Structures are given as structure tokens and as C-alpha cells.
Amino acid sequence: MSEYIPSPTDWVREQVEVYEGSGGTDGTTLRDTGLPVIIVTNRGNRTGAIRKTPLMRVKDADNYILVGSRGGAPTNPVWVYNLRADGSVQIRDGTAVYDMRVREVDDAEERARLWDVAVAAFPPYEDYRNRTERVIPVFVAEPA
């Protein structure tokens, strides 16, 4: 089993600790927004270590949409590169945990539809897109 390396970002590390430490009954919303988050567990693309990231909970039927917005920053979040290297993830949604397979969405029509679903769940995504010159990566996590 690979070693878990907590995030160097305080709020991310703390959110994961509270979420998982409670078995998924506490820490399930993004800081002061009240909006639901999931925990995505994946393997680091360089270290092979286990990484855990809270992301907005965006559902599309049985699938989850993962948006690499990083608040509209000019670079992708590190987890984007991890998912591109290894699409096997585990998603914790409250008390439920799912093994899932992730794929990056390249098809323009599918991407546009999923982007609309993501913005409906978390409207700031649209502001983030307008704030950056990069194309924000969109992934779909599907049951394994």
C-alpha cells in the first residue's frame, strides 16, 4: 500500500482530516459556502503516493464531474496531472465511498453540457473560466 501524503495546503489537509475522521458526517461542505464537497483519492503522478483532495460535489446521474478550476489560476491544480496519469480514483461522498474510473472530457458537446451542470452546482466556475486564459480541465468519474 502506498503512503498517504497530506496536502501542504492547510485548509485542504484540514478538510480531509475532518471529513474522513468523521466517517463522512462532518466537514462535507466547502468552508463557509455551505455547498457540498467530495473527497477524491488518487495516486500522485510523480511520487506514487496517495493524495486526497476535496472538490465540489457535482453529480451527473451516477457520475461525478471533476473541474480543475483552481479558482481561475493560470495553472492547473496538481491533481489534474495525477488523474491524467492514473484514472483510478476513490470518491467519498458523505458516508459512501466509491471506486471510480476517471476520464478527461475532450468532446466539445459533452464538455459544454457537463460544464453547464457544473456551473449550476457551483456558479463561481463561470467566473473562474473568465479569469483564466487556460482551458479548465473537466473530468468524469464513472463507476469502476
Which tags fit this structure?
about 140 residues; alpha+beta; Pnp Oxidase, Chain A; 7-stranded antiparallel β-sheet; 4 helices; globular
Short note summarizing the structure:
This protein is an alpha+beta fold and 144 residues long.
Can you put this structure into words, describing what you see?
- By secondary structure, the protein is of the alpha+beta class.
- The chain has one domain (about 10-144): Electron Transport, Fmn-binding Protein, Chain A (Pnp Oxidase, Chain A, Roll).
- It is about 30% helix and about 30% strand.
- The protein contains 4 helices and 7 strands, in the order H-E-E-E-E-H-E-E-H-H-E.
- It has helices at about 10-20, 80-85, 110-120, 125-130; strands at about 35-45, 50-55, 60, 65, 90-95, 95-105, 140-144.
- Strands 2-1-5-6-7-4-3 form a 7-stranded antiparallel sheet, with helices on both faces.
- The chain is globular and about 35 Å long.
- The mean pLDDT is about 95.
Strand runs, count: 7
Element string (H = helix, E = strand):
HEEEEHEEHHE
Which structural class is indicated by helix and strand composition?
A: alpha+beta
Q: Over the alpha carbons, how many angstroms does the gyration radius reach?
A: 14 Å
Q: Number of DSSP helices?
A: 4
Low-confidence stretches: none
Main sheet overview: 7 strands, antiparallel
Strand order of the largest sheet: 2-1-5-6-7-4-3
Mean pLDDT score, rounded?
96
What's the shape? globular
**CATH architecture field:** Roll
Strand content: 25-35%
CATH topology title: Pnp Oxidase, Chain A
Say which CATH homologous superfamily is assigned: Electron Transport, Fmn-binding Protein, Chain A
Q: Percent range for helical residues?
A: 25-40%
Question: How many domains in all?
Answer: 1
Distance N to C terminus: 20 Å
CATH class: Mainly Beta
